[in-house]
Amino acid sequence: xxxxxxxxxxxxxxxxxxxxxxxxxxxxxxxxxxxxxxxxxxxxxxxxxxxxxxxxxxxxxxxxxxxxxxxxxxxxxxxxxxxxxxxxxxxxxxxxxxxxxxxxxxxxxxxxxxxxxxxxxxxxxxxxxxxxxxxxxxxxxxxxxxxxxxxxxxxxxxxxxxxxxxxxxxxxxxxxxxxxxxxxxxxxxxx
Amino acid sequence: xxxxxxxxxxxxxxxxxxxxxxxxxxxxxxxxxxxxxxxxxxxxxxxxxxxxxxxxxxxxxxxxxxxxxxxxxxxxxxxxxxxxxxxxxxxxxxxxxxxxxxxxxxxxxxxxxxxxxxxxxxxxxxxxxxxxxxxxxxxxxxxxxxxxxxxxxxxxxxxxxxxxxxxxxxxxxxxxxxxxxxxxxxxxxxxxxxxxxxxxxxxxxxxxxxxxxxxxxxxxxxxxxxxxxxxxxxxxxxxxxxxxxxxxxxxxxxxxxxxxxxxxxxxxxxxxxxxxxxxxxxxxxxxxxxxxxxxxxxxxxxxxxx
Lengths: 191, 306
Hints:
With about 190 residues, chain A is mainly alpha-helical. Chain A contains eight helices and no strands. Chain A has helices spanning about 1-15, 25-30, 35-65, 75-95, 95-105, 115-125, 130-160, 170-185.
């Protein structure tokens, strides 16, 4: 139990997937313009990460590890994650139209996002069990959502700020991201 | 041996994934009927996701259209109206008939004034923020602030902030305007109005007698209620609105002779097609006349860097 809590907290803040591991930077800048979009994106990424890491750790623990073909994991993970996201999208589209409106456009975007693949690879590199990788993926997803929400809140205010013309928009967002990452360094050594 | 094993594992996982997708696709209930129709409608929409129709994106608009085709009349897609080919396709799918000449609209900024400035505003440089503070920094509360909230939302780049006319005033190019109405919503002072695109003469002032602000004291171009335009018109195209104290124009009777524009002592009227050139013409006049000092004052306004 203690071990699971450690993994969770480490994934949320200490080894934050965006600011410490620098994965998923594309949605971090692309979808952090508005708070509502950022929240939906975060939820979608968390969902996909959970599904992907459970399935990939099952495959790793019961197929790849026993036959000693771990070096195949990247190819197989991409295949599995892409088709699982496809299945989830189809299911949501056909059964729950409200959920599809909220998450539908984000799901295809993150099919082979590096953050999702990265979490699956980290789980197998650390030799996590299925339960541990589930908790790890949940933590990573929540950490991603947290950073996306913080960033979009800042960027909404930044739009109104009076900054030099050459810095407006993305440049000042990069600077903000750097300062945010510095702030998250403060958590280092906590776990 | 190892290579054979890899091939077997990889293809097995691939086949299992393929079969799973097939099963999901085959045995789940099909897409809801409305979604299918919406997707068909979506193919005939511009796909710019500008949001001018009032829905967040073309897909949401298509779904609203699929639910009720009369949505097209209440929330019209201005881009489709401009393109006869697209309009024809959409009419066929939705089974409606649209007369584009009656639906087309143009946005006009109802201000041409050079109202003087109360004080130096140095807050957030958007009209919305400036307007919340004492309804803007100009003496006339119905004066365009010229910080460009409307220009920022315009998908056609039809709005320019002209430093002409003695102040920073937004001017909309009727050639480029598609009448989408985004700027109407963006203007905090409600100065932008949609007019039918066959309008000939526009009245470029937003206050009236009901609002009880003597325009000519606040700004040298506000309507002075002299009724000269009404008296000049030979074609009965101008109706005087007694309650508001402003002229109203009947574009069916108007022959665009220009007599009212010529005679207006305050220069409040303009011909819609010439609104940009009028503005540029004004530029020269303002710079050479006694208003030069005023212009220098206006150039130091927020909106420019200081």
